[in-house]
Amino acid sequence: MVEVRKLQLPEVLEITPRRFGDDRGFFSETYNLERFKEAGIDLVFVQDNHSYSAAKGILRGLHYQLEPRAQDKLVRVIKGAILDVAVDIRRSSPTFGKWVSLEITAEKGNQILVPKGFAHGFLTIEPHTEVIYKVTDVYSPAHDRSIRFDDPSIGIDWPGSQESFQLSEKDRKAPLLKEAETFA
Length: 184
Fold this sequence. Notes:
Helices cover about 5% and strands about 40% of the residues. By secondary structure, the protein is mostly beta strands. The chain has a single domain, classed as Jelly Rolls (Sandwich), CATH 2.60.120. The chain has a six-stranded antiparallel sheet, with no helix packed on it. It has a five-stranded antiparallel sheet with strand order 9-8-11-6-13, with no helix packed on it. A hairpin with a 6-residue loop joins strand 1 and strand 2. The longest helix is centred in the N-terminal third of the chain and has 6 residues, at about 35-40.
């Protein structure tokens, strides 16, 4: 059993699997193909990724892959916490350039489903954060793209001081949304 909640951009979903706990800890089925299908999520994941961030304030994103290698992503935190962000980059969408965020924590056990057509990024809000995410297509360097995390036309409300964020060189040099290759 999973609880599914639409976020402000209804294609982006918060998924909270049920936890069974006792004095030893808990058990949770974080992904089950049949349960997800019953909840209306009919995706086949082909790759799992694991990201570790040593410090609070590490920003990864905004990333996506173009067709035909576009990816749906199911993101969860196994240690620590993140502010996860999805940006609609479908030019024909009425919500093009709009964003939604969700705090995902190991303690809560919630996940976010970021569909194809959305750029994805996250900011660690606790040190020693580990993120695991499933994707529906393998990584393809030829289709890999990114957008600036601080693009003023998007206006993401990141917590804290953006000057103190730690980014990769790729993310620091990412183009603005208006200059980026996106979806039709």
